[in-house]
Amino acid sequence: MAADAAATVDGLIARHALVAHPEGGWYRRVVESTVSVDTPAGPRPAMTSILYLLGPGQCSRPHRVLNDETWHFLGGDPLLLADVVDGAYRERVLGVDDDATLLHCVPGGAWQAARCRGAWSLLGCTVAPGFDFADFEIAAGGRLSRLLDTAPGMRQFS
After folding, report:
1. Please, which residues have CB within 8 angstroms of residue 117's CB and are 6 or more apart in sequence?
2. β-sheet with 48-54: strand ranges across
3. pTM of the model as a whole
4. Can you give the pLDDT at residue 98?
5. Which of 49-88 are b and which e, b meaning 16 or more Cβ less than 10 Å from the residue's Cβ?
6. How many whole angstroms separate alpha carbon 53 and alpha carbon 132?
7. Topology of 3-157 in CATH?
8. Is 39 in a helix, a strand, or coil?
9. pLDDT tens, 66-85?
10. Which of 95, 127, 147, 152 is the most exposed place for a label (fewest CB within 10 A)?
């Protein structure tokens, strides 16, 4: 990691009190709805949102969340976001460039992964109904092998 990028990433981590995320990168929950909803997995806040940071070369490993997750580009360099919806592998670039979008929603249960395409990418990730680690799975072992067999594009994130 270049010195300037490392200083920026370290500064963002400190400024926003981010901690390491199990899928990779850094995060902190910043919003949680005061409204609770009943889900098949149990009660959840109606919505939660985190700040999420990836530095140079960092990725969010293939994972899935039970509920819809909307990614919001907040700043830095573009981010490559991939998902597998109904068996189809898709890629999107989040950022402010002409070929990018500012928001993308990954449907609940879909595999997803992301990679910073530069020095750092800062995002918001909103899940509704709200995120709970009980509703979260990182692809590993046989599940990862099957995912990579059906969606080879995910190899760049594992």
Report:
1. 77, 78, 79, 80, 93, 95
2. 19-20, 26-32, 48-54, 121-128, 68-76, 103-106
3. 0.94
4. 87
5. bbbbbbbbebbbbbbbbbbebebbbeebbbbbbbbbeeee
6. 19
7. Jelly Rolls (2.60.120)
8. strand
9. 999 999 999 999 999 999 99
10. 152
